[in-house]
């Protein structure tokens, strides 16, 4: 069997799974998700053993520490996977919900029903926790999922998928509802994204190169974000202790994620008071700092940056600092360099906070909170399937509602078109 036949066969398997899953009740889907969570918890030792094989291979290949961090599973992260499945099981089943039901002049009732998208293909790198998150969310939304993880996580992903499929079968559902591409060739991705008519939606998660390649070659709709160039603006009216804690968390808590801060903007009115202590705290955490000319004049020990640095998604302990003179300048900077992912203002001034909220055009805009909070679990969606910076269909963290679409439904009593 050649690669195209293999991939097409997997897509047909997922399509069969989608048809069966679409008929499953919310009660059945919830029971399956709880069973999946139990299976992950009860087999954590086996998952960690397979993950250790992937981590060892990644170190031999010289992958970056940020990539290895994304790849690594431990008890805490496995518990988070299981908890995510459980949390999704507790959400309201969106499938079949009818909204906006209105009576027309001819007495017919017109509304919208929420329905599954069908077959969703997730293409992702490094993070094996995405395997459980994506499967759980797609299942609850009534979709089959095709999972194409990166070669660096092949053993971890296969171990997790095996448990999920066993649970589906035990509950009488088609195992194709969770379909895994265990061929690690990159060419498999190119075959998948051409399967128009079998796959309904592609969601790539990973580096900018992967996402651009998928978007440029796909014949199927793609939901994506290219990168996360996220900002925190420390306003002149900020509580500086709060600002320091938010900025530190946004950069240091887990720097290899798409919602970590890459540029810190500081109002010139409080820069001399705020920056020395903030910079010292960053230095103690081994953060490499780059500064604009105003920043380096104030703190000569900071290396100068170039304009290109403002576009960088570092995914590491590296940070740009820019001093701005006004709120307008901060908003203009974000409009110029942001990837429209996540941006925060720290301020006690309500009017300035609301201006920032209205004028910054990102998928998530926060007031007095870390950028790291832009996450489906933190926003109450359960586990997320990704964070979209697109403006059509879904924007921001994508939970189960974002994995459904609407169809019009009509209740009539003999109406005809005149």
Automatic annotation (TrEMBL):
User: What's the Enzyme Commission number for this chain?
Assistant: 1.2.1.41
Subcellular location(s): the record lists: Cytoplasm
Top EC class for this record: oxidoreductase
Q: Which InterPro entries match?
A: Ald_DH/histidinol_DH, Ald_DH_C, Ald_DH_N, Aldehyde_DH_dom, G-glutamylP_reductase_CS, Glu-5-SA_DH, GPR_dom
Give the reaction(s) catalysed. L-glutamate 5-semialdehyde + phosphate + NADP(+) = L-glutamyl 5-phosphate + NADPH + H(+)
SUPFAM superfamilies the record matches: ALDH-like
Q: Which molecular function term from Gene Ontology is one that the record holds?
A: glutamate-5-semialdehyde dehydrogenase activity
Which residue intervals define the domain Aldehyde dehydrogenase in the entry?
13-289
> Which Pfam families does the entry mention?
Aldedh
HAMAP family cross-referenced by the UniProt entry: ProA
Q: What is this protein called?
A: Gamma-glutamyl phosphate reductase
User: Which species expresses this protein natively?
Assistant: Candidatus Magnetobacterium casense
